[in-house]
Amino acid sequence: MLRSICILGLLVVLTACAEQPVVDYGTVTQVEAADAPAENTGLGAAGGAAVGGVIASRFGGGAGAVAATLVGIAAGAAAGSAAEGALQNASGLRYTITLDDGRVLTIVQHRESQDEVIQPGERVAIRTSGWRQRVEPATGPPAKP
After folding, report:
1. CA of 120: how far to CAs of 36, 74, 75, 108, in Å?
2. In this predicted structure, what is the pLDDT of residue 117?
3. Taking the CA of residue 125 as centre, how many other CA atoms within 13 Å lie in the half-sphere pointing to its CB?
4. Distances in Å between the alpha carbon of 99 and those of 21, 78, 113?
5. ∠ CA 113-118-119 to the nearest 5 degrees?
6. 120-137, pLDDT tens digit by residue?
7. Band of the pLDDT at 86, cuts 50, 70, 90?
8. 24, 72, 101, 127: which sits with the fewest CB atoms below 10 Å from its CB?
9. Confidence (pTM)
10. How far is Cα 7 from Cα 10, in angstroms, rounded to an integer?
């Protein structure tokens, strides 16, 4: 019981930490068009695995059906993930940014229809949450001298 409570507490702490975005500030030095990578949610893989598993389970008997189901799940997951990625590939922008601390980042992001293109010389905020980064016009602290 105590072990379960400790594990639950650790999960709550890790979840809270993961949700806190980190914000860095900098200045855009270059902007160019780029193919934006797909941001898979995992739903395509999950759906593909379910469909692949159900279809493949109809083949074979006994241990053969189990093996066919496992192969179907793997193949379906791969196909579903690829399909989701293909549907989400879009045009984007590659921003090269010099951060206030001197580091240089290059970030490729999807360009949403409402997004304005941030021009070289403009201050930006880079919001990092987990593995995702988003470049936005800065509304934070002033530029450092």
Report:
1. 19, 45, 44, 15
2. 87
3. 12
4. 17, 37, 26
5. 135
6. 999 999 988 887 888 888
7. low
8. 101
9. 0.51
10. 5
CA distance 126 to 26: 8
Query: What's the pLDDT score for residue 9?
Result: 53
CA angle 12, 19, 117 (to 5 degrees): 170
Q: In this structure, are strands 90-99 and 132-137 parallel, antiparallel, or unpaired? A: unpaired
What is the C-alpha separation between 127 and 47, in angstroms, rounded? 30
Read off the tokens for 76.
């379906």
Residue 111 has φ and ψ, to the nearest 5°, of -105, 110
Best mean pLDDT range from 26-40, 43-57, 73-87:
26-40
In the 8-state DSSP scheme, what is residue 77?
H
The full set of domains in the chain, from first to last, is: 19-37+90-137 (2.40.50.590), 43-87 (no CATH)
Report strand pairing: 22-36 vs 132-137: unpaired
Please measure the distance between the N-terminal and C-terminal CA atoms of the chain and give it in whole angstroms.
Answer: 56
What token pair was written down for 72?
């179907």
